[in-house]
Amino acid sequence: MVIQKIKELEELKARAAKLAATIDAERTAELAALPGKYGYSDINEFIKALKLAVGVRGARGRKAAKAAKAPKAAATGKRTRAKITPELKEQVKAAVLEGKSGSEIAAAFGISLPSVQNIKKEFGLVKAREAAPSEGAAPVAS
Question: I need a surface site. Which of 28, 35, 45, 115 has the fewest CB within 10 A?
Fold first, then answer.
C-alpha cells in the first residue's frame, strides 16, 4: 500500500515537472513574439517603449544630498562641570543667610544641589549628622 502511494507520488512529480517545462517553453515563445505582435522590429525598441509606458527612468545618477537639519537643542541630561570659585562660594553663603532654599540657590547659580550642600557644610551652615550608635552600646533584650 505504501509502495503504491510512493509510485503514485513519483508519477505526479514527473507530470508536474513535465508541465512546468511546457509552461516555461510556451512562456518563452510568447515573450519572444511580443515585440512583433505590437509592431516593433527590435526587442530593444520594445523595451524602451515599455519603460516609457510604465514611467521607469533611465540610468540614475547620485542621490540628492539630504537637507541640513536644524541644530538640536541642548541636551537636558548631563551638563558640563561647574567651576566653583571662592566668589561663587561667598555668593552661595550670602543667599543661604538671606533664607533661600538649597534648590533655589542651585537654580540661581547653575550648580547642583549637592554642591550647594557641600558649600553650606564648608561654612558650617548645616548641622552635622549625629554619629550612629555603636553595636556594643545597643541594649540587649532579655
Answer: 28
Burial 41-55 (b: 16+ CB within 10 A, else e): eeeeebeeeeeeeee
Domain spans in the chain, listed from the N-terminal domain onward: 2-54, 86-122
Find how far residue 34's CA is from the centre of its chain: 49
pLDDT digits (tens, 9 = 90+) for 32-71: 888 888 898 888 988 888 888 888 766 666 666 666 666 6
Residue with cell 510604465: 54
Report if pTM > 0.70. no
Owner of C-alpha cell 558640563: 80
For cell 517545462, what's the residue? 21
Instruction: State how far the Cα of 109 lies from the Cα of 92, in Å rounded to an integer.
Output: 8
Distance CA 10, CA 17 (A): 11
